[in-house]
Structures are given as structure tokens and as C-alpha cells.
Amino acid sequence: MSHREHVAICYGGRSAEHDVSRVTASAVVNALDKTRFTPILLAIGTDGRWLRNVAAEHKLSHGAQAPESGLLIEGRRVVLPADPTLGGLLDLDTGEWTPIDVVIPMLHGPLGEDGTAQGLCELADLAYAGCSVVGSAVGSDKIMMKRAFRDAGVPTARWIELRDDESADADAILAQLGTPVFVKPSNMGSSVGVSRARDESELIEALALAFRYDRWALVEEAIEGREIEIGVLGDGELLLSTAGEIRPGSDFYTYEDKYEDQAAELLIPAPISDAELDELRRLAAQAYRACRCDGMARVDFFYDQNVRGWLVNEINTIPGFTPFSMFPLFAASGLAYSALIERLIDDAVRRHADRSSKAGQQRPDRSAAQELASNG
User: Fold this and answer.
1) What is the third-level CATH fold of 158-221?
2) Which CATH superfamily is domain 225-317 in?
3) Catalytic (active-site) positions
4) CA-closest candidate to residue 136, choices 296, 357, 326, 321
5) Rounded to an integer, what distance in angstroms lies between the CA atom of residue 111 and that of residue 113?
6) pTM of the predicted model, to two decimals?
7) Tens-place pLDDT, residues 1-44
């Protein structure tokens, strides 16, 4: 794949998970094999501007590491056109054209993780890492995810969906689900907008918070038990990681636990039996396929210590590449970070070729764009 050397790493974005994305991108850039790939850093501001961080690219080319605190949102104004005959990046100031071979969208939350960035790549006829449009959209929206789990027979906690223009009967909800409950925006991650409610007044407040981030909210029963994670890669024969156990530093695994005060613990491998690991991997694969995932994901579990045993909490199609996410799970399974990134890129190229052939699409003629790039 020597001809596929330009890897565009998209980070930032307009969602509430903007800063998490910057940290994730730094980790990915530092793990990227610079002898095989040239990173193109696409920073998306909170206002939606696309910038190419050429200053960071220059430092990386001279052996520097991206900061652990996250890549900056800075650089020259650029655009990634949906025109498939172009297949690259246009500098709006200089007119310079840079071809792109593979896109790695490290954009958490809405307008990045939810199929929108993936759809842009499809229109532009570019290979991209991670799940396709359908898997990204279903995996990003908690209500659609729960519906997919339900229809596929994946065990999960009891839940109720609400829309912001519906009147919520807090008493009836708590009577059905018990107390406490968790309230979450349907299309958001990293525990943003998530609340624990123990009575009617707290439930009303929690719904108001959730509706600040999305028109739809999920209310689900609280499961008092262990929290386990499994990583999944691939779309045919799946590669499943060992298990990690999260021990939150507060009532639940909050944004602060994950990214700020580091109060949570992650135990890898999780202290579970071989039989339990086999069962978790089986359920992870079932949940992954139920959501039509085909690139990567992390599947999160709860253990209902009362009756039901292991329950799938949710699936995360662009997990943060931090010490509490995908990387350590696969590193402990024998797949080094750089090898994980390389596999994601190789899978992206293969799936792109497979999708194009099955769709019967005419391959775009990029000769003009290639000439423009060579004349630079």
C-alpha cells in the first residue's frame, strides 16, 4: 500500500466532545507509522471551520510528538469537497491541492461519529477508517442502538425513549423502571448530558439537561454491578480483545472520570473467568453485528448481580484512544497501538474497494486532480 500514504486525521468538531476528539487525535498521530504514512491533520473548529494544521505536520515530520493534551485547532483554511473526481483537500488561501488516500475520522459525537463525516467520505469516494454510514448512525444514537439490540435479542437494561415535545409522566416512568434511573441524550457520548435521577424532580431536571443536547432522550434503569469493556475490530471474522473492568470514581462513569480527574480505575485484564470472557465476546460480537458495525467499536457491559447476568450497555463506534479505551484493551491482547492503527487503515482501503465494486459505480477520473497536485 505504498501508494496510499496520505492519511487525513480529522479531529475537533462541533459537538460537546470537541476536546476529547483533540486528545484522541494526538494519540492516533503519535502511533501512526511515519515511515509508511504521511499524516494530514484536519482540525475542525467548534464553529465548523476546516483547518489544516500544517505547523503540527511540520513538527511531526521532524520527529516531534503530538501533545498529550490534544492537537490544536489552528492552520490554513481548507475544504474537503464531496466531488469524487477530486479526491483530496483544497487550500482555500493558496489553491494548493493535496490528494488524500485514507481518512481517519476521530470526531466524537454528533457531526462526526454519527455517519455524517462518513457520508462525506462516501460522496468524495474516499476510503475511511471505522464503521460505515449505517453502523455509525445506529451506534451513535442510543435509542436506535437499543432498538437494534432488542430486535437482535441482545440482553440490555430496560429503557424508555422520549422526545422533547412530548410530556413526560415522571411518576409512570419511575414506576416502570424503578429508582434510580439514568437519563441520557440519545445522540451524545463521553457521558455528556448524562444524569442519575432518584426521584420525580431529579428526573425532570435530568430530562431538561438531556434535551439541551438532543431532541431525543433515553431513560433506563440503573444496573448496580460491574462495568466491563470489550474491543471489536473487523467486519467478517472479528477480532475481539480481552476484557477491561471500569471502577468509577463516582456514582457512575462520568466525563470527569474519563478525561479530567482520572479518578476511575481500569483493570486489564478484568478479573473474570475464561467462561465469562467467552460469553462477553459472544455478546460483543452479537451487539456489533446488530448495529451493522464493520470497522471498530468498543462494547460496554453491566453485570446485573440480581437476576439477568451480563447486559450490553452500549456500543461506541469511535472510542477515544486514551488509557481508558480501545488501545489498552488490544495492547493487552497482543496488538500494539501502531499495529491497531495500521489495521484500521488497511481495513478502510479494503472495504472501500469492496463497497465500490458491489455498488457497480463508475470509478471517478482523478487525472485532472492528480495533475493539479503534481504541479502544486
Assistant:
1) Dna Ligase; domain 1 (3.30.1490)
2) ATP-grasp fold, B domain (3.30.470.20)
3) 57, 190, 259, 298, 300, 314, 316, 320
4) 296
5) 6
6) 0.89
7) 445 489 999 999 998 889 999 999 999 999 999 999 999 999 99
